[in-house]
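for the record, two folds in this file. i put them one after another cuz i was lazy. first one right below, seq on top, structure tokens after. the second one comes after a little note so u can tell where it starts
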Amino acid sequence: MILLDGKKISEEIKNEIKFSVEKLIVNRQRPPHLAAILVGEDGASLTYIGSKIRSCDQVGFKSSLFRYSSDISEIDLIKKINDLNLDSEIDGFIVQLPLPSHIDEHRVLLSINPKKDVDGFHPTNFGKMALGLKSFVPATPYGIMKLIEKYDIQTEGKSCLVVGRSNIVGRPISILMSLRGKYANSTVTIAHSKSKNLLELTSKADIVIMALGIPEFLKSDMIQKGSTVIDVGITRVEDKSKKNGYTIKGDVDFKSVSKKAKYLTPVPGGVGPMTIAMLLQNTLDARLLNSS
């Protein structure tokens, strides 16, 4: 089994980004600036934002964090987004999801300038991606595609099963895997929690991308020998033996699947670090776009 080491590849990508930033500075141009909006006190969101800020520091980006209480109104949140849209010193920004239930996420995402939408969630960017045009690609699917490329995994003509249909992972990765290209050109099937023949689908797939959100759902008897398994799942599972009270589990039973798969991502250390690296790449691209 070959481990798809997202931590290692993400560090390589960050080093490339850092080199590009140093070139900007040598040429007396400002470094890229990534901003984040965080609403509420969700523990997982705080962890993710902290990782993103540390990564910005690592590659030489400027970063800004705008924190608001969970009772902020939708109108006030969109007003802040409009301010960031007009701020020429900020190249890209993200609104950390999920948002409180009284705020319409779709309305918020629609209010982001597509040229600063480094999360790749705006319909303009999503539509361009679906057409195979240059756009900001959602960071997690972008990271998966980069892992496939870096490990030279053969995808052309292969059957690819995507388990999960979210707009953040499942739908975009299914589109990317079906587009023309050396590391795409797959025959893609999308399954989800309502699919009745999931075992039949997973056992026939050459590539399985798990984004279901159920810890250790995929077992070794559900896949064919020699398949590629990419685990997007990340769930906090209570574990009193741990100091923080929980352990991180993916959607894949790593211990059993590792004995049967040819390629496999770990959790943590697989797709997660790639997501942050590709968010930085999108921000660098936004900075270069703004200077052109």
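(here's the note) second protein begins now
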Amino acid sequence: MIFIAIFILTVFLYSLVSRRLESTVITAPIVFTLVGMLLYRLPPAFTDLELKRQGLLLVAEIGLVMTLFTDAAHINLKSLTSSRSLPTRLLTTGMLLTIVLGAAAAMLVFPELSWFEAGILAAILAPTDAGLGAIIVNSPYVPTRIRQALNIEAGLNDGLSVPFLMCFIAMALQSTEGAASVLGRFIGEQIGYGSLIGIGIGAVGGWLLAQANHKQWMAASMQQLGLVAIPLLCVLASEASGASMFIAAYVAGFAVQFGFADAGRHSVEFTETWGQLFDFFVFFLFGLIVARSWTQFEYTHLLYAGLSLTLVRMLPVALALAGTGLSRSTILFMGWFGPRGLASIVLGLVYLERQANLPAESTIRLTVMATVLLSIFGHGLSALPGISIYAKRITALNSDAPEHKV
């Protein structure tokens, strides 16, 4: 109870000064991660809250499921198409190159890793975090086109990372069951069933919500809860069928829009309130776990973390944006601000839950932790200075520069 009480007290205290902190480099992930790390210094009686993998995984999975559904429901497909010159490049060429380069860097830094283990690490760390990048995407000093591109990328790449991760995990299990059978079952159950569940529940749920709303059967205050029930139904259906709850929730976020056009607005309203508690709690527990594992970190984990946040991210972004006419400052800005956070934490837990018992499990776990930790503080502390420097650079650009196009 003391453990939960400290978390609730932290939420309360943070809420009191949240507006003041918006103008500083102190972000919510920094606050809750630090409190979690400091909590490790308390007597064991205060921190032994059955901190088992199952409990943390459940909280983290629900948080990611809600995030995936909200991100997909919030993305207007028409706006994605109209902005395709930037977001589509980042989500296709940029993301594929990030995974390939991330796997290559992993095999270079950790020679003991097999190629599929390196792929697992790269897929876990491929998605960026919209929450950690909130300062960037909400800043009026950053051109609208750049903000939208980063926001759409962060909103969609976490869902796109899931199939890659599952494929690499399936390949890791091939030694015991055979590659064809493992991959075939994975495609059929994880991706196939997950997509069908997402389309079915999302489309039908969205249509029913729209009809109830049109006939004025539904109270306005219940629209959010009705919408939130859709990804949770996807979780239950996925658990029963062996499908991926993440793929199901992600697809449902798109499918619900066909019947309920206001899904994005209502889902965002939920995420901005209760949904944030999941994120805060994950970072809170992440801080405690990092503190407990502090003595296990080696220089190679930090070396890869640095490469993942710089070269592995920035080079693919630069190649993906080649030919767009964007300035060097813009490409550098977009390359650096690709923070790793909630999605990487949850995908790391999902990998551990698969119990593949790979030789490099400890290496993958510690490297993911080091990368997310470095990102939380590195991107959080550099956000405001980075915006300030970038704003000065783009003021020198002509009014017809690609950055200012809508």
